[in-house]
Design goal:
Blueprint: H1 2-5, H2 8-23, E1 33-38, H3 40-50, E2 57-61, E3 79-85, H4 93-106, E4 110-115, H5 127-134, H6 142-149, H7 158-165, H8 172-177, E5 179-182, H9 185-192
Parallel strand pairs: 1-2, 1-5, 2-3, 3-4
Helix pairs in contact: 2-9
Length: 193
């Protein structure tokens, strides 16, 4: 993780290349692309939005909210959705407050959902065992996940995706085919080699 965060220009270049490859796919509408990330990936998609990447939306699930490069007015093109555990010790209340102030000051179209009583990695059913194994404050939260999944049988609610993209008139079938980038450094690094 620190290898990436210590060289953000390289991370931005890799993300930009992955975005370019994605937008070149026949099944992708290059004018309607969103990026999602979990944990480290959530922090990365927020960084890419702050950097002004050509994205319609980003969704961060229990990602880091702090930054060395705060959003600037007019630079963030994406609508931003942050899904956070209010009791996540890796994202303290001060970081949440600073993030909201940053987004408001920059005029970003954003939504923050702060789930009360929920900790880090709440969408991962294996979080409890990982937390024990690595002595980290991780906890799966079925109630929070239920709010995300609704009746959509194992995939994020279309309402969540729709909120991230701010496209209320888009049909469900179109939303299901919208492209997303899942930040996975090894795959992106390989694509840029």
């Amino acid at each position: 993780m620190s290898a990436v965060t210590s060289n953000m220009p390289a991370a931005e270049a890799r993300f930009s290349k992955a975005l370019e490859v994605l937008q070149g796919q026949d099944t992708v509408d290059p004018e309607r692309v969103a990026a999602i990330g979990y944990c480290f990936g959530g922090g990365m998609v927020l960084h890419m939005a702050r950097a002004g990447m050509d994205l319609d939306g980003v969704a961060s699930f229990h990602g880091s909210l702090g930054t060395q490069s705060p959003a600037q007015p007019g630079r963030v093109k994406a609508s931003v959705l942050v899904l956070n555990g209010a009791d996540d010790p890796l994202v303290p209340p001060e970081q949440v407050q600073a993030f909201e102030q940053e987004m408001q000051a920059a005029g970003v179209d954003y939504m923050l959902v702060n789930y009360p009583g929920v900790k880090h990695s709440f969408t991962n059913p294996d979080a409890d065992s990982f937390g024990e194994r690595f002595d980290m404050p991780l906890a799966y939260d079925a109630a929070a996940v239920h709010l995300l999944l609704g009746s959509s049988a194992g995939r994020p609610s279309l309402d969540v995706v729709e909120a991230a993209l701010r496209e209320p008139g888009v049909a469900d079938a179109e939303l299901e085919t919208m492209a997303t980038i899942r930040w996975r450094l090894p795959q992106v690094a390989e694509a840029t080699s």
